[in-house]
Amino acid sequence: MGHGVFDHVKSSRQHWWLVIAAGGLTLIFGTLGVWQYEHEPPVGENGPLACFFISLYHALQMLILHTPHLDKKTNVWLEVGRWCGAFTLVGTTLMLIWKRLCHECRLVHLGSWEDHVVVCGLGHKGMEIIRCRKKSNAQNNPAGRPVKVVVIDPNPAEELAEECARLGVPVLIGDATEERWLKQANITTAREAFVITPGDETNVRIAAEIHHLSTENNNAQLACFVHLENIHLRERLQQLPGNSDKKRNGGKLIFFDVFDHEARKVLLSLPLDGNGIAKDDPRTVHVIILGFGRMGRSLALRAAKMGHFANQKKLRISVIDRQAALQRERFLFRYPMLDTKEICELSFYEFEAESLSARQQIEGWAAEPNTLLHLFVCMDDNARAIEVGLRLQEALVERPDCNLYVRLKTHASPVAILKDAQGKGPHLEPFGMIEDTCCNGSIQNEINEKVAQALHIGYLADLKKRRDAGELIVKKDSEKPWVELDEVYRESNRQAADHIAIKARALGYHLGNLTAGSKPVTTFNREQKRILAPMEHARWCADRWLAGWKYCAERNDAHHRHYDLVSWQKLPETERRIDHAQIEDLTNALAADGKGIFEGK
Predict the structure, then answer these.
(1) What is the pLDDT at residue 71?
(2) Model-level pTM?
(3) How far apart are CA 148 and CA 475, in angstroms?
(4) Range of 506's domain?
(5) Domain identity same for 422 and 457
(6) Continuous segment of H or E residues that includes residue 261
(7) Measuring CA to CA, how many Å separate 248 from each of 186, 221, 265?
């Protein structure tokens, strides 16, 4: 199918087979009818073989409503063949004309669409976003009107295009990097756009074109969600200026990554610190990652940001990969601070996941005392990942307390088999399925978003309070309302929100929903603050370091320099007050999302 063809509501296979069958019957009955009409009896001087081909030729003419001159009574076979030929020609013509008519009508109708959704890229991720968007938006639409979605893809898979047809989603067969296809999808009046092609470079080009068109047409309502698998590129683009709600007059670019969201979600559900790590707890948290692809890198980075505990023991991250040396160099090129062991202890081991060396190494780690063990099998092949998971389950039969997660691509993978194949040892848990990752939560950062916003409001309130008390505080880039705040600072608040549960468990508490009659913890005593404040400072330092910030005696936000990037022991008392203020505000931040801190684990 060439460019410029609008994906039609595909005629069903039954219709086409009916037309093909009618054509076949035309040839059979037409040949038999012409034979009887012209050559029997007798066959004549041409012979039976020649007569057969002459009859077949005339039968083929019936497919275009043409028959030889008939000057005598016809037979039943000839009439049946003629009508089958007419049905074949008319049926095929109608289907083709209907297809083209639908194409033209939908093009005209598409030009009047407003507040619709444009999806650029019809892979499995794009299809899952369409399903999720259609379902969730239809449920939230008070008028009950179906959500309008249009797709642009240069070469959509047939089965996905057919599903779009069933959902009433038109598919433009074209290149979304070209302005004309975005205009044909009426991007200038759209409410949302999702850019989720397989290539990051293509996604950036499409996003730039969408941003240009939306700015040119003052479509400030457009939210353009851009999927980038390169976590480092995504972090850099999130920091671009001119994307705040207040300053822009075009669409807002929102960069997301389903791998990072799934890593964040699974680390929150574990959790890393089990039932909690108190100040004097001797245990160390050890995260083992088999396979350092996209999911493995996201897990390592999220764990490094989240793994800061009351006992001040460094998180251990061990990576097993067949190209460990190369993976290490690439990872540390982007995050050199991880090589200093200031944030965590990161080690790489060059083994095949399905090797005796890897198994023996993991068994040795499992035998270490006072260790909270979390294993993640992140391999590209589902069958191999499941086998490795099952083998590790056997090897860790004496460590049923550890967490063993196996990353699978889709629910169509043998997820049910994995769940049913539980044996002795740690429980196997699948994660990372595309149906779970390509949802509203991963796109719109729904996890702890209200808590993160509340923490930022508390931070602004504390600054105002200090200024009102006469303290001289220089204006900071982070000192903006949430809607104007740079994405890098929003993400920092999200990480602070994610860490609240670890802080609560360090005190023997837990998080829960606020209900009528519930009695949450509302304040912390001095000793509890002394435990939690260093944890928050360590978490904040890790966040800044991994974002490329460095220590400097003079703060410079533009050059990512900060004087607070020191250990808690070296931090001045005036600066410690910031961490104490955030600890005091934790309960208020949680309440903004209907949650609270409660006694007991």
Answers:
(1) 64
(2) 0.78
(3) 44
(4) 448-599
(5) no
(6) helix 258-269
(7) 20, 10, 31
